[in-house]
């Protein structure tokens, strides 16, 4: 019996329904990891999977398994991505990969003929939009979770320990989320491109060859809050003016050839009052490059620039490395499997490098990992109008399922 093809109506219905969870008046989706909206999206996926007769589970890191968990005596193909979003996100980043992974698991497990189990996972807190440890779930699953220096705390003051417990995880048992590489066949992730290349080239499927690395810094600038009218300009310690200069100095790093991209996307000033000089600023720096050595040199240069600007403006700067991820190459044999699956349906493909980070990057440390991309309309993402055509969404899901079937069928292999 051949596998059922991707169920177009079910796939698109689930994406439409999930896009309502965490939707704000602006039309964007705000569903940061471990927020109430994230928990609601997880419950939605559990209901959908259980209605299809699949087992579900949450591991200690809060990762949501939709299908069997890897277990001794078998090597499981894991398909997945994340359900959490950035603030005011679009409807597809991450969630498309999870919904398509569930779709493939539903269609393939009913075959009862597979040589390897196939399962779906929604990794917890990939974005780090509220709890500032991006890739939380995949770091734990791949055994790479850095030891926290303090109790992990969200930007709104919520303790990660409590948020994780609410999601069904357990901070004290986080090691139990670690996967045994011997129980894994491979990891495959389907995602929207989030950039302009596939649309521009009119190619429906991208095969990711590499994913850039990232360093995130958290910066605290301490100046002196004072009266905006009575404090003479000379001698001020204006933390926000220092931050303004720092934003431009960091933005200049790629132009000065330190790295591919550099961004300050989050900035909070206190007391944030029109007639008071800002005494305190917190901001984040996000630096990315495909070359690990360059990445770390760029992060070092960012710190030097920040410290020098702060010193000149008599502001105290403290920079801490909040998160970092290594650039990775995807697995060549898996890339060939994706290309072969596409060729069987005469679907054109293009090799692509991902400028966005993905859970696949973490999973690559413990198992062969690869990614399939579909075009993003207008090349945009992390904004409410992020979109992909329904035909491209269905085709991408079919490519994921075809590749998964080829890898797990008795005659399939990773060669
Ligand atoms: C993940 O969304 C990233 O910021 O690359
Ligand atoms: Mn994202
Ligand atoms: Mn994503």
List keywords for this structure.
415 residues, Aminopeptidase, binds glyoxylic acid, binds manganese (II) ion, Alpha-Beta Plaits, nine-stranded mixed beta sheet, four-stranded antiparallel beta sheet, 11 helices, alpha/beta
Written as H for each helix and E for each strand, in order along the chain, the element string is HHEEEHEHHEHEEEHEEEHEEHEHEH
Supply the number of structural domains.
Answer: 2
Q: Which whole number gives the mean pLDDT? A: 96
Distance between the termini: 25 Å
Shape estimate: elongated
Which structural class do you get from the secondary structure elements?
alpha/beta
What's the Cα radius of gyration? 22 Å
Q: Which segments are poorly predicted (pLDDT under 50) over 5 or more consecutive residues?
A: none
Report the helical percentage: 25-40%
Biggest beta-sheet profile: 9 strands, mixed
- Counted beta strands: 15
Name every ligand kind in the structure. Answer: glyoxylic acid, manganese (II) ion
Strand content: 15-25%
CATH architecture term of the largest domain:
3-Layer(aba) Sandwich
The CATH homologous superfamily of the largest domain is called: Zn peptidases
CATH fold assignment of the largest domain: Aminopeptidase
Q: What is the CATH level 1 assignment of the largest domain?
A: Alpha Beta
Q: If helices are DSSP runs of H or I spanning 4 or more residues, what is the number of helices?
A: 11
């Amino acid at each position: 019996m051949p596998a059922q093809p991707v169920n177009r109506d079910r796939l698109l219905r689930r994406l439409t329904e999930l896009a309502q969870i965490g939707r704000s008046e602006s039309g964007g989706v705000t569903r940061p990891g471990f927020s109430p909206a994230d928990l609601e999206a997880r419950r939605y996926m559990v209901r959908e999977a259980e209605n299809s007769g699949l087992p579900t589970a949450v591991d200690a890191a809060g990762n949501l398994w939709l299908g069997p968990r890897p277990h001794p005596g078998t090597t499981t193909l894991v398909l997945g991505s994340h359900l959490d979003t950035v603030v005011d996100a679009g409807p597809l980043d991450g969630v498309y990969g999870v919904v398509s992974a569930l779709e493939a698991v539903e269609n393939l497990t009913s075959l009862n003929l597979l040589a390897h189990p196939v399962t779906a996972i929604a990794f917890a807190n990939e974005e780090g939009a509220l709890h500032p440890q991006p890739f939380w779930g995949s770091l734990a699953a791949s055994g790479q979770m850095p030891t926290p220096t303090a109790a992990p705390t969200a930007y709104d003051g919520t303790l990660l320990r409590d948020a994780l417990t609410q999601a069904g995880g357990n901070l004290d048992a986080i090691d139990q989320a670690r996967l045994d590489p011997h129980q894994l066949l491979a990891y495959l992730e389907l995602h929207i491109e989030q950039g302009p290349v596939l649309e521009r080239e009119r190619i429906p499927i991208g095969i990711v060859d590499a994913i850039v690395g990232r360093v995130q810094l958290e910066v605290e600038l301490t100046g002196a809050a004072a009266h905006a009218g009575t404090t003479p300009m000379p001698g001020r310690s204006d933390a926000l003016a220092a931050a303004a200069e720092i934003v431009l100095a960091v933005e200049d790093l790629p132009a000065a050839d330190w790295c591919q991209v550099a961004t300050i996307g989050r900035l909070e000033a206190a007391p944030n009052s029109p007639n008071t000089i800002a005494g305190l600023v917190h901001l984040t720096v996000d630096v990315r490059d495909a070359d690990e050595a360059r990445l770390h040199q760029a992060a070092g240069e960012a710190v030097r620039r920040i410290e020098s600007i702060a010193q000149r403006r008599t502001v105290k700067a403290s920079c801490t490395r909040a998160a970092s991820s290594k650039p990775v190459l995807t697995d060549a044999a898996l890339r060939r499997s994706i290309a072969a699956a596409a060729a069987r349906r005469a679907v054109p493909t293009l090799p692509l490098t991902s400028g966005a980070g993905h859970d696949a990057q973490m999973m690559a440390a413990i198992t062969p990992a690869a990614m399939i991309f579909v075009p993003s309309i207008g090349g945009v993402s992390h904004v409410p109008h992020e979109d992909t055509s329904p035909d491209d969404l269905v085709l991408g899901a079919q490519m994921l399922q075809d590749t998964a079937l080829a890898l797990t069928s008795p005659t399939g292999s990773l060669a």
